[in-house]
Fold these 2 entries.
Entry 1:
Amino acid sequence: MLQQLINGMMLGSVYVLIAVAFTLSIGILNFLNFSIPGLFMLGGMISWVLISMGVPPLLAFGLAFLIACACALVVEKLTFSWMKGSDHEVPLVSSLGFLILFEQILLVFYGSDQQAFPKVIPNATLKLGDLVIGSAQLLGLVLSIAIVIGISRFLKKTRVGRGIRAIAEDTTTAEFLGINVNVVVPLIFLISGAVAAIGGMLFAVNYSQVSPFMGEEVGFKGISAMIIGGMGSVWGAIAGGLLIGLAEVMSIYFLGSDFVDLSVYGLLLIILMVRPQGLFGLAQVREKL
Amino acid sequence: MLLEINSLSVKYGRIPALEDFSMEIKRGEIATVLGANGAGKSTLLKAILGMEKASHGKVVWEGENVTNWSPSRRIKDGLALVPEGRRILIAQTIEENLLLGAYQRDDVDAIRHEMETIYDRFPNLCERRHMQASCLSGGEQQMLAIGRALLSKPDLLMLDEPSLGLSPLFVKQLFKLLRDLNKGGLTILLVEQNTDQALALANTGYVLERGKLIISDGAQKLANDPRLHEAYLGVAAE
Amino acid sequence: MFSGYIDGLIVILAINVIMAYSAALPLVAGQLNLGTAGFMAVGAYMAAFLSNEYGLPIGVAILVGSLASGLIALIIGIPVLRTSGIYLALATFALGQILVAVFLNLEIVGAAQGYPVYGYIEMPTIALTTIGLLILLFVLSQTRFWLYLTAIKNDPTVCDLFGIEVRNVQLAAFVLGGMLAAVAGGLQAHYLSYVEAQSFGALISIYTVLFVILGGTQTVLGPLVGAAFFTFLPEVFRSGEEWRYAIFAAFIIGFMVLRPQGMINANMMRRLKAPFGGKASA
Ligand SMILES: Nc1ncnc2c1ncn2[C@@H]1O[C@H](COP(=O)(O)OP(=O)(O)OP(=O)(O)O)[C@@H](O)[C@H]1O
Ligand SMILES: [Mg+2]
């Protein structure tokens, strides 16, 4: 039971990263960026491709990270910055187009099968009594929480972070104050894409498998985690991500794997009806897409 | 000349909001732009800051053509605007609002020091510096908006109808503040509906009617110019 | 062989068109429904179950399935439609996932193993049903109801002021959409002779919304054009087999860059209606 709790948190740490990626995009830009699961997948798949070509793991991760970041910037150029002033669904659709594009390109080259991701972290496990904690999983949990704390500090304490929060509240006012929106907005896409890509790498390392479609399900659960925690709240993303991870692992343990969707999305639906702003959200988050 | 505007035009879509507007502001001067609702006053200020694109004409700042500069670059170079409706970020603290004014600067110590000067000037803000700006009254918000603009260390401070919605007492304080700031060497471009007080404060005045400059004159002469009242009545009578 | 291919394509087109309108009805009123696949599943399972176990004629079974789906939409729509924007989109998304997950665990219809369907309908029946539905929808688009939908999207507050019961109109659109999706599900189940919960994944709902937005929601024709386009475009690229979906995705991105208002917009319709109107539309 306690072991399940730990497994749930480890799984949740991946959702935490995806939720943070979404929450940055929605909370600041009011944009549900569907390409995030695609960038998550690029992080995992490109690392795998490079490692299986013989690139040393650390370098492979670095390169995959850079490629995913570059893709995030391309997404910004062709979705968000183009679509200013159009219907809110429009950037949503084209970011979805990017998700499909990324998936299909990798599909063409590497097929749709699950690929085994090599062990890159020594197989050490931490044993506390009956509990078993994998070193890779522990690293994942620590890393994702560190990233979230880092982002939160960055937003709170730095000059650019203040600018980002000004844009989140009112883009026009931010412009009046001399914040270079044209630089800061791509930066937000970059951070959010980078976080998603790291999530994909962690997932690959922890669960030892990757595929072109690995982003979809994780992406949907990440969005749910974001809503449950509270849209736009970085701390909410941690709470929501861990909660979804726990709900998933617990329902597999007690009810069977076919019940996962029922409990995860049931939780989401209940939260949306009872407390739409989520656990940590502000009541008056703007309601656009 | 600090600021020179040469036959500037701005359009929203196909509709002209400002046509062929020219003005010159000397360092240390107070200029005021008057006109009825919809005359194009805000459009003018936004175009000077670079928030609206000029369809024709140019903006020359300290001898340099800045017509194609971004707002952030112009602000870094000494322009600042207290926008219409104050535009305080109510979800952030008062101090964060002030710091946003200094977004383009990186001389942290000087910013700290100037912030203290602003707090001295507006003790109401100082007391609540770590509270959300939503707790401020309209007048206090206007002071915050001005303080925020001052923190960018401007050479020219533009204000868009700062007296709107303030009590007479606050309006008095506001005009006294502007006079003080000007004595300290700050150049001011003021857009107002409050014609009499604006002209009493300013050196020169400009009157806009439906996007066109119809009078520009010394402030005192303008105050007695019958055409000034026509500019307001003419629009109202339509 | 060849005609089998054409038949199949027409059925896919018909299903896609019906689904497009099921998402379009709420979307015209500005509400994004990302759970249409769930309602499709309800219709598919319900109709299949009724025709299998109770021997109901297929048409009746589909109709009952559609009513059941409408009822579910009504019951759940009342609380869910209190939210709006992104919250609504995700609430409907969660709802779709939950509906499908319920069938995935429902032993009486085979749970994860899937559910064979014994009744069979032919392509022409499906095509005719779709045309019938389209006619109904076009008639609906001439009514005040449609006008209200577009008005709500543009400005719900003003609608409130003019006495339009915004909540009820939205609910009606949502329920009608749920019923349409169920018809699509029922038809598909009886054509494929098989129902499988896994085939109603979230991507079906998302693609459906994609058709609609690509087609455009400013006119009643938009969703039809979008769905048709989506059905045929990948076929056109068939020669490039493995690249076709990648090309397709690139096309979506490019299209949205060039024409964010969708393929068919209101201006274009006005021009079509008044070809010699000179300055009909400014
Ligand atoms: N974003 C915009 N899009 C279209 N038209 C605009 C826009 N902003 C202003 N206008 C129009 O341009 C004209 C000038 O507007 P502007 O805001 O500059 O007037 P103003 O003199 O500041 O008026 P007020 O005293 O009411 O603030 C008006 O006719 C207005 O309707
Ligand atoms: Mg104005």
Note: The pocket of magnesium ion (ligand 2) is lined by residues B 41-42, 84, 160 (CB under 6 Å).
Entry 2:
Amino acid sequence: MKIENIKNEFPIFDEKIQNNDLVYLDSANSSQKPKVVADKINEFYTKQFSNVGRSVHYLAVAATNLYENTRSSVQKYINAKDKNEIVFTKGATEALNLVANTLGQKYLNEGDEILITELEHHSNYVPWHFLRKSKNIKINFAEVNDDGDISLEDIEKKITSKTKVIAITHLSNVTGAILPVKEITELAHSKGIIVVIDGCQGAPHLKLDMQDLDCDFYAISCHKMYGPTGLGVLYGKKKWLEELPPYQGGGGMIREVKKDKISYGDLPNKYEAGTMATAQVIAFDQSIKFMESIGIENIMKHEADLIEYGQELLQKNNSVKLIGSPKNKGGVLSFTLEGIHPHDIATILDEDGVAIRAGHHCCQILHDKLNIPASARASVGIYNTKDDLDKLNDSINNCKKIFNLK
Amino acid sequence: MNLKELYQEIILEHGKNPRNLGKTHEFNKDAKGNNPLCGDNVHVYLKLNGQKIVEDISFEGSGCAISMASASIMTDLIKGKNEHEAKEIIEDFLGMIKENPELKSEYITKDEKTKLMCLSGVKQYPMRVKCATLSWHTLISAIDNSEEITNTES
């Protein structure tokens, strides 16, 4: 599939949004859905529906096969060693909570330290904060530098003899910094430290290879990967998923239940209690196939061109201040406009059909550090074009006009 | 939808040069408010005299043009009113932003009503209503001496 005509695959771009053509620059928040994904959800509910893994009737077996096909597709897409290292969750947030909770139950002790970074999304901070409360775990922060980046050196500096886990983002949802996760993992493993990666922004934009990366856990948000909402993937190394306790109890995750004794099921069932987001899992297979049909190298090249173009464009625009200039930057252009609050920017841009996000983007620690209450963020996906970024720039100029700025 | 209606000159002017910005000397009531989704925050300070008249009122905080202008216009208007009048005006304003087509309180002049109605443009922008009402909800907390931080999400 050619990336040039990719907008045609997304029905939403045929819609008029408040009488405007949609310029969607909010993919870091959630991506739009290709027709194949929406169609698959409809097809499953109208023609193939059954619960999975329980009954023996035809539909149940067929649905179970579809469900497990997605697991295999994800395994292949991220090059995990074993199919059972892929656990479906209700989102990346649940994936990270699962890791923090189960490590807390079995692996972490009072006084142990977790190293995160000032770039982290709240979902890769708050779950660890719970352990601060319940287990007296200490959280340290690697510091963001002037480029909006985290250096390997600072990570190394912040590691102590008590550091048990390093939990880091793959790609910052605010500054766009792509962290040296492979080097960080190597360093961590040389000191016996577990590595947890928040891959929410990494997975939609970067080539993933779990065996090469060698991290212990990697969390994925499916709705940012042109897939359905309500679904996430946790990749975990088999030895960890086998060793750690279950996260939630219920149907499907058990082996045997007696009045005085319960044993748990094998992977990945152990971590998939209750009826899962079946339709979403089955439709997510189409998202993976869709991305594969374009090719991650092409996606990366396309988005790198867009970011470079957008950066140049906004740098030339007076009053625009870009946030973060990391050496390896992907996906997002966050900015402030001197004299105009980000919420006002977002409202005015929306009137032109330009959808961006304003706020702290679930990164209050970072915004405090930058000493700004909020920022505006334009983020790209495979369907964006340079024309979209020109419209962003035009609309920013409209803001300046309304607020009488030069 | 009409941006000109939302960003009227008076809103932009108050947003840019908010009145009563800072910390009132000798305040005897205050409250903090925040909007956790967008990070707006405001701190309202009140000085009530023995007759429960607002002798002075001010605010500190950061936010968009709408929230700053709303706090600015509010503090201008509440100064000199007594507690009972202030509460009625707040209720009247919140009712107008929510559903009422106009302001009804007898405690505000025609000119003051015109000024407050400039904020009515947010009605067409549901996501921005919170920006306009944050300082008003916080003022209620300050008058009531509420210890809790006012939160537009609750």
Note: The two ends of chain B are 27 Å apart (CA to CA).
